Amino acid sequence: MRRKIIPNRGDLKRKAVNYKTGVDLRLDEEMLKKMEALVENTSVQFLEQTVETLKGLREALSRAAADPSARREVLEHIREEAFQIKGMGGVFGYPLLTEFAKSLHDFLKELEDLDELQQEIVSIHVDTLYVVISHRIKGSGGALEAQLRASLRAAVDKAKPGTKAG
């Protein structure tokens, strides 16, 4: 069987842009300022919302400590919130927020309950997320953040199911 080559008629290109006049993607100064203000405002809203979320996580942890029957519900709530923070941190230029929220989400992924040590590990994660937000640490951070990463990893490893806390 002989192959038949179907020529591209360029329909997609014509539908995407006006190829006769072209597209001017340059932004004037006013439009650029409006866009930057929108991004900054959205970033501030994200940080404020995340602070409220973290307050809610602290309250949930207190509820789990006081009422063991609430632990599974609290676990699921924290898991969902960690997933949300993980997804949004990088969007707004906070990769450390994403990294620490991922660490928390991964830690909780396989758990079905939260014992006292695991609750403490969750609390440490929440505190770490607060630090990133309160200091508005953008980028990957420095030496202090590297120490935080290592400490979180060690704490998570210590509290994983099936390992004995030393």
Provide structural commentary.
The protein is mainly α and 166 residues long. It is built from six helices and no strands. The longest helix has 38 residues, at 29-66. The protein is extended, with a radius of gyration of 23 Å.
Task: Please sum up the structure shown.
The chain is mainly alpha-helical and 166 residues long. It is 69% helix and 0% strand. Helix 2 (29-66) runs antiparallel to helix 3.
List keywords for this structure.
mainly alpha, extended, 69% helix, 166 residues
What is the topological layout?
Elements: H1 11-16, H2 29-66, H3 71-89, H4 95-109, H5 116-134, H6 143-159
Helix pairs in contact: 2-3, 2-5, 3-4, 4-5, 4-6, 5-6
Helix content: 55-70%
Q: What is the total tally of β strands?
A: 0
Q: How confident is the prediction overall: mean pLDDT?
A: 85
Distance between the termini: 71 Å
Q: Report low-confidence residues grouped into runs of 5 or more.
A: none
* Main beta-sheet annotation: none
Radius of gyration: 23 Å
Q: Which H/E pattern describes the elements?
A: HHHHHH
Question: What overall geometry do the principal axes of the alpha carbons give?
Answer: extended
Number of helices: 6
| Percentage of residues in strands | under 5%
Structural class: mainly alpha
